[in-house]
Design a protein that fits this description.
- The protein has 78 residues and is α+β, with helices and mostly antiparallel strands.
- The protein is 13% helix and 19% strand.
Length: 78
């Protein structure tokens, strides 16, 4: 089985309406290299967002181009 075919999978479908309220679903991603993944996502159109972080968090909060927030977590410590 190819890596891209692993489950669970997510499908993102565009909708005609804009975001009007807080997200009902919040995604957290845990890449092996947080800095590289944040850079990759920013290059694809994500942006940093302030949702009340203190600056001490081990995650980075971003939003997609439509304003949907998600976090990129630090790698798990063995």
């Amino acid at each position: 089985m190819a890596e891209r075919d692993r489950l669970p999978g997510l499908i993102f479908a565009p909708v005609p309406e804009g975001k009007t309220v807080k997200n009902r679903l919040h995604l957290d991603f845990r890449p092996e290299d947080q800095d590289a993944e944040v850079s990759r996502l920013l290059a694809l159109g994500a942006r940093h967002v302030d949702v009340g972080q203190t600056g001490e968090e081990s995650w980075v909060t971003l939003a997609d181009p439509e304003g949907n927030e998600f976090c990129v977590l630090a790698p798990r410590r063995g």
